[in-house]
Design brief:
The structure holds two protein chains of two kinds.
Chain A (H helix, E strand, L loop, with lengths): L3 E4 L2 E4 L5 E7 L7 E6 L6 E5 L3 E2 L7 E6 L2 E6 L8 E7 L6 E2 L3 E5 L1
Parallel strand pairs in A: 2-11
Antiparallel strand pairs in A: 1-3, 3-8, 4-5, 4-9, 5-6, 7-8, 9-10, 9-11
Chain B lengths: L2 E5 L2 E3 L5 E8 L8 E6 L5 E7 L6 E3 L7 E6 L4 E6 L8 E8 L6 E4 L3 E5 L2
Parallel strand pairs in B: 2-11
Antiparallel strand pairs in B: 1-3, 3-8, 4-5, 4-9, 5-6, 7-8, 9-10, 9-11
The chains are: A mainly beta, B mainly beta.
Chain lengths: 107, 119
């Protein structure tokens, strides 16, 4: 199985700050990498697909980059509504696997 | 608008069975693969099982193989997960998810149903 790691596991930042999360795959997954936002009690939401493509309707302050084994997710200007846990997920091979998540909150 | 509504969760003893359902609307159900993803208390997301649009092909996480069965009724726009021989470690919120044009991208999710396995 492909193992996904994320760092940091949690972070606290101020409104307007730039926030960066990294995700690493245990093997080359080309660009078969998605990013999701999950708020407690709500349905997870797809934000970025194919490593760098913004899902329709998602604010442009969210972005993704990377290929191979190393990926980055960025919130360019953190907003209060962005408080959530963010997960990367590979779909290169079954079983589809998620990173352990990064919990983002406001300082 | 795509809507996914899970049901069927509850409290069950170890070794017991439970059947989850996911009612889908807002899209052509038979055209899309579907998956079940779970989240154990305090843990992250874990893909459990998937099924293609026709129901002919199914996929499972190793730890649930031979215990869980995924199926779908395209005439009723409903996805199912039959869970047998349940273990304490299966305790989780189970989400159904609609896959996109590319398998493994979960475009839409339900809000989940809680399964608690405990004596």
């Amino acid at each position: 199985d492909i193992q996904m790691t994320q760092s940091p596991s949690s972070l606290s930042a101020s409104v307007g700050d730039r926030v960066t999360i990294t995700c690493q795959a245990s093997q080359d997954i080309t660009n078969y990498l998605n990013w999701y936002q999950h708020k407690p009690g709500k349905a997870p939401k797809l934000l970025i697909y194919d490593a760098s493509n913004l899902e329709t309707g998602v604010p442009s302050r969210f972005s993704g980059s990377g290929s191979g084994t190393d990926f980055t997710f960025t919130i360019s200007s953190l907003q209060p509504e962005d408080i959530a846990t963010y997960y990367c997920q590979q779909y290169d091979n079954l079983p589809f696997t998620f990173g352990p998540g990064t919990k983002v909150d406001i300082k | 608008e795509v809507q996914l509504l899970e049901s069927g969760g509850g409290l069950v003893q170890p070794g017991g069975s439970l059947r989850l359902s996911c009612a889908a609307s807002g899209f052509t159900f038979s055209s899309y693969a579907m998956s079940w993803v779970r989240q154990a208390p305090g843990k992250g997301l874990e893909w459990v099982s998937g099924i293609d649009g026709s129901g002919a092909s199914t996929y499972y996480l190793d730890s649930v193989k031979n215990r869980f069965i995924v199926s779908r009724d395209n005439s009723k726009n409903t996805l199912f997960l039959q869970m047998n021989s349940l273990r304490v470690e299966d305790t989780a919120v189970f989400y159904c998810a609609k896959e996109g044009a590319v398998a493994g991208t979960f475009e839409y999710w339900g809000r989940g149903t809680l399964v608690t396995v405990s004596s």
